[in-house]
Amino acid sequence: MALRVPQAGGPQLFKEGYKNLQGLEEVILRNIQATKEMSEITRTSFGPYGRNKMVVNHLDKLFVTNDAATIIRELEVVHPAAKLLVMASQQQEAEAGDGTNYVIILASELLQRAEPLLRMGLHPSEIARGYELAMDAALEQLDTLAVDEVKGWSERSELLKAVTTAVASKQYGQEHVLAPLVAEAVEASMPRDATRFSVDNVRVVKIMGGGLAQSRVVHGMVLPQAPETVCHNAQFARVAVFSCPVDMGQTETKGTVLLHNANEMLDYTKGEEAQMEQAVRELHDANVKVVVCGSGVGDLAIHYLNRFDMIVVRCPSKFELRRLCRVVGANPLARFGVPTPEEMGYCDEVRTDEIGGDRVTIMRQWSASELAASPQSAERPAFADRIQRSPLVTVVLRGATVNALDDAERAVDDGVNVIKSLTKDARLVPGACATEMELSRRVQERAEQTPGINQHAMKAFGQALQIFARTLGDNVGVDSTALVAKLIAAHHASASDGLVGPSIGIDVECENEPRVLDAKEAGILDPLSVKQWAIRYATQAALTVLQVDQIVMAKTAGGPKLPKQQGNWDDQD
């Protein structure tokens, strides 16, 4: 038996408090364990039967959702390896708008499949090389699996092909309500050049009460409050937009006014009143009928605006104010005064509606067919056609609770983002895990044809793609092992009859035993570009974690933390 000779301590490289971890056990396997725990959080929320998570963030705000993007955004992840997966999923959200859970699950599974290879003695660089070859093969085969594409952006049936699956993964059972709303909103706001479609042109307003079936699409801008003035309706109106309060300016210095008698006190506010009346009169003389402000409206300003039969609407959100400026073609002014003709906006119709028990203000431009049918179109000014306006559409959602409305809003956002990704690449692939199982089969076949040690990592990559079918089976509540066996048999079968072929996926409506279906015939289709980016980002994140062999962490800055006080100082023990 060899005698272990203790080594003398070497020179100290770092300050006191630094942590230096290195080696297979301390770094790579711990990182793999951290990513596994990260994926266990979001994995049960995958698919139409995904479970909800109840997350309370650092501001004590409650989130009840199965949307992985919201969950990881509100969780404060501190482990560096898990943070890499979070950043990859956030980049997927920015690029494709969907598939964040896909990235985390696949990246974590790739790292878990690499663990036995590392214990067998393979070097991380060899595994990384095999994963890169497998990713290239998967992306190459993915292009051949496209079964359909969106052929027309003005046809609602074409839009529903892609939107229904994306909405069903978040709001299963309500996709027949939400998907037509998303398709109608996208159809109304789609420009002639589909590649210039902006997701900002579809906004969501949530109004408590009623049910989801009472939701509807409104062409124009919906502000969730009534006007501040008595006048509530106007047509063919010029609009002035102010980002400042509609009130008299306050001085920065404090002053003292000495009043000698009652007449001086009566005359004290007359100058302010005259100045406000003059400002409102100038707006009225400039034919401004609607005033929109980003801050508060003073009582004196409301009095004179009512006298001149003008509408004033508050829009406290600066993002909504920018959208409103795009709708009416106005420039927001930082001072209260008369805008120039170039700074004014124009709106065909401003009206107040009652939705449920809430009053909302709708600002919209008429379409060409509405103008042709209206007898009042002759009153429309000639310059209105020259204003560059944005085709903004609002989806008004109804629901019983705030959390239900928030979840429905995320489903609508996912549907709109899917359409945005399809404007770049309109191809669709079978959903219900059919594409992943077919890619798994083809990547493993390619691995068997690959000489050398890279084939082990390529086989692990192919087996990792089966995690989605297992996860979906677990969330549905059936035996995932029997389900994956059925899918493998269906994708390897050579017969031409029966449920076999590359488009065979999971039937989530099965009750007791696992069941498969033809995803193409069932209309379960996913955008090809979403899966393309997700496979790329997940593989790159896994390779980044895999190639880390040392972690050096500095001491946290700051002094010692104060002890937490157990109670008030006067509480009895």
Account of the protein in words:
- It is globular, with a radius of gyration of 31 Å.
- α5 runs antiparallel to α19 and α14 packs antiparallel against α15.
- It is an alpha+beta fold and 573 residues long.
- β9 (288-293), α10 (299-307) and β10 (311-314) form a beta-alpha-beta unit.
- It has 19 helices and 18 strands.
The CA-CA distance between the termini, in Å, is 61 Å
- Average of per-residue pLDDT values: 85
Strand order of the largest sheet: 7-12-11-8-9-10
What shape does the CA trace take? globular
Task: Give the uncertain stretches in residue-range form.
Answer: none
Compute the CA-based radius of gyration. Answer: 31 Å
Task: Note the main attributes of this structure.
19 helices; globular; 6-stranded mixed sheet; 3-stranded antiparallel sheet; alpha+beta; 573 residues
Task: Set out the fold topology.
Layout: E1 19-22, H1 24-43, E2 53-56, E3 62-65, H2 68-74, H3 80-96, H4 100-120, H5 124-142, E4 148-149, H6 156-168, H7 175-189, E5 202-208, E6 216-219, E7 221-223, E8 234-242, H8 262-268, H9 270-285, E9 288-293, H10 299-307, E10 311-314, H11 318-328, E11 345-355, E12 358-364, H12 368-373, E13 393-399, H13 402-424, E14 427-430, H14 434-448, H15 454-464, H16 467-476, H17 480-492, E15 504-506, E16 516-518, H18 519-522, E17 525-527, H19 528-546, E18 550-553
Parallel strand pairs: 5-13, 8-9, 9-10
Antiparallel strand pairs: 1-18, 2-3, 4-14, 6-13, 7-12, 8-11, 11-12, 14-17, 15-16
